[in-house]
């Protein structure tokens, strides 16, 4: 079972998320928190696999809690819950080690898929918002930042660049495999190699790097 902690300051939101997640036979919501302080304490006590963490909360916000969770329970994966109105916070969340993010209006099946992906050690970027959010986050990039990103990508071979470009579009391993006529296992091998060469912690960081470099434009 995937042990999940749901963190949101709105009880109705927590109840809705819990109802969705417990409909899956492999997910168990073991605790709920209303702010970052509670989330940190419960994550330590309950030994959860995945924390769903809202950004905007009183007391301790989600971004502050994320940094503390990554420091104190590094094996616990953290998924950020967000809205388009909070895009300015998303880049910070991803670069600080979040396993990805979900929009609060995501479909129930997407929420379950994201939790399963996070528990499996994969990063999850909401497919319906990937291009919009990544473009927004990188729209103000400087020429220096773009040049630095392009230099990092010089480490990659041609096929690796093709796979990285699809990561930048938010494609899953299976979808990228279909696009490139590869097996999902082969794409997964390429992704692991790309993350190692680029010194990226997860595929979301690699996707942002691809967008910085203008890969796929």
From TrEMBL:
Keyword DNA-binding belongs to the record: yes
Stored Gene3D superfamilies: 3.40.50.2300
Residues where 4-aspartylphosphate is found: 54
Domain HTH luxR-type: 149-214
Keywords associated with the record: DNA-binding, Phosphoprotein, Transcription, Transcription regulation
Domain Response regulatory: 3-119
Stored InterPro entries: CheY-like_superfamily, NreC/VraR/RcsB-like_REC, Sig_transdc_resp-reg_C-effctor, Sig_transdc_resp-reg_receiver, Tscrpt_reg_LuxR_C, WalR-like
Superkingdom of the organism of origin: Bacteria
Name of the featured protein: Response regulator transcription factor
Lineage: Bacteria, Bacillati, Actinomycetota, Actinomycetes, Kitasatosporales
